Amino acid sequence: MLRPKFGAIHMTTSSQHSDISADWIAVDWGTSNLRAWAMGAEGVLAFAESDAGMGKLARDQFEPALLRLVEQWLSDVVTPIVACGMVGARQGWQEAPYRAVPCAPVASGDLVRVQTQDPRLQVMIAPGLSQLSPPDVMRGEETQIAGALALMPNFDGVFCLPGTHSKWAHVSAGEVVSFQTFMTGELFALLSGQSVLRHGMAEGGWDEVAFDAGVSEGMARPEKISARLFTLRAEGLLAGLSSASARARLSGLLIGIELAAAKPYWLGQQVSLIGSEALCANYARALAAQGLTATQLDATACTLSGLATARGVWKKARP
Questions:
Q1: Alpha carbon 126 to chain centroid, angstroms
Q2: pLDDT for 169-198, tens place per residue?
Q3: Other beta carbons within 10 Å of 135
Q4: Cα–Cα distances in Å, from 153 out to 98, 171, 173?
Q5: Using CA atoms in the order 195, 197, 200, 204, what is the torsion angle rounded to 10 degrees?
């Protein structure tokens, strides 16, 4: 798995590093969480995170939330801060309008400057990407794709970004040509935690054989998914299907129908996975059963590399 070219990430908080003065700050600001890295000439100097996600903040609360996390990294001079994710949504700090594909994942002149009260802050937000046919959007993943391209120059193929909303993006000549989103992770969370299936999955666990069976079943007969889901409940009642097997087969079924629908993206293509190691391993296993070997990239490495790319193109575009 590829790691950041600027060294290991230190999982430390700003309060433990009050003597740090960042050259610039990289920020990944999602719906639920805020993550920030103090960056220097040699790479990552410190890391801090909080649960002050976009979904919990009013517009006038973003700057205070950021300052609480990074103030001890600031000096008397202006510190550039490059952010990606839902902070640029319509409900975020300031909307960073989508850029239509085909286009480079990040581009000069397209970062949106945020007006701040604190003169030490120079905040720029990377826009997301949009697609009109079929309608689709991404926000945050474009930065990871930019980082992946920086880590793997001349890549031509498909990036899969598993997660709550999995993305499949076709990339060629440094541009995102098209992409498609699947609500696989959200469906798994809803079905395993809120549907009737939750009664057979309370104990958690995992069963790779059951996962493989679910992938195979989902790919072979995706139109049967609703019936196959209830089978999990019935098998638990009648045949004692274990919680581990039920959870794994549910995951396999949902990933299987995703792969069936995304087949035009991955069939015969070079595929790289960007995301958490465990989730990417599941997708790699499912793809391997179809005869495709996918490479795996670390999500944080791609995010940091992408934010560095965004900062670089912004610096070049300045008058």
A1: 14
A2: 999 999 999 999 999 999 999 999 999 999
A3: 8
A4: 24, 12, 10
A5: -70
Tokens representing 270 are 């070079």
Identity of the amino acid at 318 = R
Q: Which two tokens stand for residue 130?
A: 């949009």
Q: How far apart are CA 32 and CA 6, in angstroms?
A: 27
Closest by Cα among 180, 184, 183 to 170: 180
pTM over 0.85: yes
pLDDT at 2: 47
Q: What is the pLDDT of residue 94?
A: 96
Using only C-alpha atoms, what is the Rg of the chain? 21
| Dist. CA 22–CA 299, nearest whole Å | 22
If phi over 0 gives left and psi between -120 and 50 gives alpha, with beta otherwise, what is residue 233?
A: alpha
Distances (CA, A) of 173 to 128, 202, 291: 19, 46, 26
Q: Would the CA dihedral through 65, 108, 154, 169 be positive or negative?
A: positive
Q: Which two tokens stand for residue 180?
A: 């498609």
**Residue 111 — φ and ψ, nearest 5°?**
-70, 140
Query: What whole-number distance in Å separates Cα of residue 312 and Cα of residue 107?
Result: 10
Q: End-to-end distance of the chain based on CA atoms, in angstroms?
A: 38
Helix or strand run (H / E) with residue 144:
helix 141-151
Contact 77, 41 (CB under 8 A): no
Residue 272 has what pLDDT? Answer: 98
Q: Residues with Cβ < 8 Å from 308, sequence gap 6 or more?
A: 6, 26, 39, 147, 150
- Residues in the chain, pLDDT under 50: 2-11, 13-17, 319
